[in-house]
């Protein structure tokens, strides 16, 4: 894949880059390894000062960074600015809370016949981050902020269509004060991932991206016995039950489906509506979806910009065409526009069945599948009836039903009466083919830590020195 900035509004190639040579990659790994030895010996307070400086830079340069993201992948300028702010917030969160998350955790010394026992969290070394283009700053930051605070270093292989944002991230951490090599951008294609992850100095990998990329990286990491965190695709259910506020649910459903031009892993993608409120919801939802303004993402009135690539737009269109050809009904949208730019209209498709691609696949664009359920059990069966398990939403004001959804939905997150989103305070990740491991919160930070058990005995002949071994 060419490493290039191509404006999705008109398909114009603005800047191309040569992929780094093997020698350049090896040099970068050498530098990150040296930086790791330096970083792990700095204090949490020092790392916190650098990460806070990164937050300050993000806030000061918010508009420029946002404009670059919009140019590279088409998200609205307003959404891009919000993404920069969210990254600054995450930096401050980890700068403020790392000391607490990394503090020694006392264990029950008596139970393990020790005078003292505790868990210590330590960094593990350079981590390879393979990242997608859809939230080009945020996806990287939610890995980088906790990883750097823990004393690890980062090697970023970003998506090939966001090279300038990738370079900006390296520059940001350098200017914030982190040692040279602590965070390095590698301008390489996905074919270089095997070489990088096979290097013994690279200790782990995190990938946010598709299932195909996840399987590939997990295979390499398995062969090399390296830890991975995989944040993969999703086809999140959005269930609406009779006690829900249907108007509010339709309003939030529209945002949940079309945020980021419909290209979010945790976007609600399958709308499963109880038959008692199906007609009311379908009408309100289609009305709101068709009222969204599609256009230039730099324009303040635009709700939905272009998709990030022509290939991505054609894939979404092919999924809709497949459903229509097999008997589905389009309530709004559904026609690929002619003209320049990779636009696609907000679309609602219903009368879906298991023979259609939309039933089983993730649709990465502003296209909603609408399903009717006659009962709670049928809603759960539909909701859990995919290979994915990232986020999920349920709309109900019945407290017992809320409890049941929280337990029964097979997903890494359940949001009730609200849309799925990520917060630095809450763990984020999936089950089933949506991946494994968690980002954000203390859990996210601990993923790339050596969770070290420390057992201290009295050191005398009479005291226990461990009752048995394994
Ligand atoms: P993608 O094709 O998997 O690309 C993601 C990253 O992986 C890019 O850097 C890409 O590099 C690299 N890559 C692709 N194939 C690879 C391979 N075989 N081996 C090693 N690296 C490989 O995904 P995308 O289409 O850009 O992004 C959309 C997908 O990401 C969707 O499925 C979405 O749901 C998922 N996603 C998940 C989350 C989450 O948190 N769970 C968040 C956002 C997106 P190149 O660009 O050079 O090909």
Q: Strand order of the main beta sheet, please?
A: 12-13-14-11-10-15-16
Assigned CATH class of the largest domain: Alpha Beta
| Number of domain units | 2
Would you count the extended β strands for me?
A: 18
Q: Any idea what the CATH superfamily of the largest domain is called?
A: Aldehyde Dehydrogenase, Chain A, domain 1
Structural class by sheet pairing and helices = alpha/beta
Query: Over the alpha carbons, how many angstroms does the gyration radius reach?
Result: 24 Å
Organism: Micromonospora sediminimaris
Family: Belongs to the aldehyde dehydrogenase family.
InterPro entries: Ald_DH/histidinol_DH, Ald_DH_C, Ald_DH_N, Aldehyde_DH_dom, ALDH_GabD1-like, GABD/Sad-like
Protein name: Succinate-semialdehyde dehydrogenase
Detailed description of the structure:
With 470 residues, the chain is of the alpha/beta class. The chain has two domains: 3-232 and 430-454, Aldehyde Dehydrogenase, Chain A, domain 1 (3-Layer(aba) Sandwich), CATH 3.40.605; 236-416, Aldehyde Dehydrogenase, Chain A, domain 2 (3-Layer(aba) Sandwich), CATH 3.40.309.10. The protein contains 15 helices and 18 strands. It has helices spanning 22-39, 44-60, 62-73, 77-101, 138-150, 163-176, 193-198, 211-224, 246-258, 275-291, 310-325, 357-360, 376-383, 399-408, 441-447, and strands spanning 3-7, 12-17, 105-106, 116-123, 126-130, 153-157, 183-185, 204-208, 227-231, 236-240, 268-274, 329-332, 347-350, 367-373, 393-395, 415-416, 435-436, 449-456. The protein has a seven-stranded mixed beta sheet with strand order 12-13-14-11-10-15-16, with helices on both faces. A six-stranded mixed beta sheet has the order 7-6-5-8-9-17, with helices on both faces. It binds NADP nicotinamide-adenine-dinucleotide phosphate. NADP nicotinamide-adenine-dinucleotide phosphate binds next to helix 8.
């Amino acid at each position: 894949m060419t490493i290039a900035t191509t404006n999705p509004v008109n398909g114009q190639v603005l800047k191309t880059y040569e992929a780094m040579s093997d020698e350049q990659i090896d040099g970068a790994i050498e530098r990150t390894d040296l930086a790791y030895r330096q970083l792990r010996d700095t204090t949490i307070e020092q790392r916190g000062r650098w990460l806070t400086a990164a937050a300050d830079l993000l806030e000061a340069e918010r508009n420029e960074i946002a404009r670059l993201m919009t140019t590279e992948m088409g998200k609205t300028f307003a959404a891009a600015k919000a993404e920069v702010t969210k990254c600054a917030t995450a930096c401050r969160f980890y700068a403020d809370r790392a000391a607490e998350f990394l503090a020694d955790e006392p264990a029950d010394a008596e139970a393990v016949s020790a005078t003292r026992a505790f868990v210590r969290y330590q960094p593990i070394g350079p981590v390879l981050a393979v990242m997608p283009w859809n939230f080009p700053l945020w996806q990287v930051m939610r890995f980088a902020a906790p990883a750097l605070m823990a004393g690890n270093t980062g090697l970023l292989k970003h998506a090939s269509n966001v090279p300038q944002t990738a370079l900006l991230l390296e520059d940001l951490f350098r200017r914030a004060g982190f040692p040279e090599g602590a965070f390095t951008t590698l301008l390489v294609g996905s074919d270089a991932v095997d070489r990088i992850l096979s290097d013994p100095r690279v200790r782990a990998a995190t990938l946010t991206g598709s299932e195909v990329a996840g399987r590939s990286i997990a295979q390499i990491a398995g062969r090399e016995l390296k830890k991975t965190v995989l944040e993969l695709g999703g086809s999140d259910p959005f269930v609406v039950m009779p006690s829900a506020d249907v108007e509010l649910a339709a309003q939030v459903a529209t945002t949940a489906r079309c945020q980021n031009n419909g290209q979010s892993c945790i976007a609600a993608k399958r709308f499963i509506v109880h038959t008692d409120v199906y007609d009311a919801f379908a009408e309100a939802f289609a009305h709101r979806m068709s009222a969204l303004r599609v256009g230039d993402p730099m324009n303040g009135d635009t709700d939905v910009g272009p998709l990030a690539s022509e290939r991505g737009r054609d894939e979404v269109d092919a999924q809709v065409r497949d459903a229509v050809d097999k008997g589905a009904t389009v309530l709004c949208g559904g026609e690929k526009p002619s003209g320049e730019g990779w636009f696609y209209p907000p679309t609602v498709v219903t009368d879906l069945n298991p023979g259609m691609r939309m039933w089983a696949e993730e649709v990465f664009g502003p296209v909603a599948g609408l399903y009717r359920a006659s009962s709670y059990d049928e809603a759960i069966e539909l909701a859990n009836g995919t290979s994915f398990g990232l986020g999920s939403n349920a709309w109900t004001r019945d407290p017992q039903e809320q409890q049941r959804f929280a337990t029964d939905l097979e997903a890494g997150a359940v949001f009730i009466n609200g849309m799925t989103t990520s917060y630095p305070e809450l763990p984020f990740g999936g089950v089933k083919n949506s991946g494994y491991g968690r980002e954000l919160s203390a859990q996210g930070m601990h993923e790339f830590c050596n969770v070290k058990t420390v057992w201290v005995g009295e050191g005398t002949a009479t005291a226990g020195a461990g009752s048995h071994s394994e």
